[in-house]
Write a structure and sequence with these properties.
mainly beta; 6 strands; about 55% strand; elongated
Length: about 80
C-alpha cells in the first residue's frame, strides 16, 4: 500500500497528557509507523495537510454506544 503522511496542527499524546504542535503521522496500510515533528517518509508517500486539526493516533471510533442494542433487566444487561 502507498504510504500516507498526515500533517496535523496538534496531536494529543496520551502518555504525557499533552498536545504537541505541528506533528506528522506516517501510516502504511492500516498501521501507524511513525509519529513526530519530522517523520522520515518513503518515496512516493502521499501527504495530507490538516493544519487546523487535532489528531489522536491509535484511537478508533472514539465515540460509540457499546450497549445500544442491549436491554436493562433487574439482574443487569441482557443481550438483544
Amino acid at each position: 500500500p502507498r504510504p500516507l503522511l498526515l500533517r496535523v496542527g496538534q496531536l494529543y499524546d496520551s502518555e504525557t497528557r499533552t498536545f504537541r504542535r505541528n506533528q506528522e503521522i506516517l501510516v502504511v496500510g492500516d498501521e501507524i509507523r511513525a509519529v513526530g515533528s519530522k517523520v522520515r517518509r518513503p518515496a512516493g508517500t502521499r501527504v495530507l495537510e490538516f493544519p487546523t486539526c487535532t489528531a489522536t493516533p491509535g484511537l478508533i471510533d472514539a465515540h460509540t454506544h457499546l450497549l445500544i442494542h442491549q436491554k436493562q433487566t433487574p439482574d443487569g444487561l441482557e443481550v438483544a
